[in-house]
Write a structure and sequence with these properties.
By secondary structure, the chain is mostly helical. Helix 2 runs parallel beside helix 5. The radius of gyration is 14 Å and the shape is globular.
Length: 111
C-alpha cells in the first residue's frame, strides 16, 4: 500500500465517506480500519485532509448504530501514533468520542 495507489485509495474512501450511502460509509470505514495495520498507514489515513473529520461526522450525525460503530472503530484504529493523537485532540475528537461512547446505555442485570 504505497505511493500513488495509496493516495487514490484514500481519495476514493474519503469521497465515499462524504457522499456515500450508509452502507457505503460503513464499508469505507471498515476498509480504513483494515488498512491501518502499521504506524505509516495510520499516519497516512489521519493526514488525508478531511478523513478524520468525516469519520467524526459519520459517528455523530447518524442514527445508524452500525455506522457509528464502524466510524468509532476506525478512529480508534488510527489513533495509536502520537502524531495522530495530537490531531484527534486538536479536532476535539476525543471529547466527541467520549460523548458518543456515553450515548450507549449500560445494560445491567437487574436480578
Amino acid at each position: 500500500w504505497h505511493g500513488r495507489g495509496k493516495k487514490q485509495s484514500l481519495d476514493s474512501l474519503f469521497l465515499i465517506l462524504q457522499r456515500g450511502s450508509s452502507d457505503s460509509k460503513i464499508a469505507s470505514a471498515r476498509v480504513l480500519q483494515f488498512i491501518a495495520v502499521d504506524a505509516d498507514a495510520k499516519i497516512s489515513i489521519a493526514e488525508k485532509q478531511g478523513v478524520v473529520a468525516e469519520l467524526l461526522k459519520s459517528a455523530s450525525s447518524e442514527k445508524d448504530l452500525a455506522l457509528i460503530e464502524a466510524a468509532l472503530t476506525s478512529l480508534m484504529a488510527i489513533s495509536v501514533p502520537k502524531r495522530n493523537k495530537l490531531k484527534l485532540v486538536n479536532l476535539r475528537a476525543v471529547k466527541a468520542m467520549k460523548r458518543l461512547m456515553g450515548v450507549q446505555p449500560c445494560i445491567r442485570d437487574q436480578g
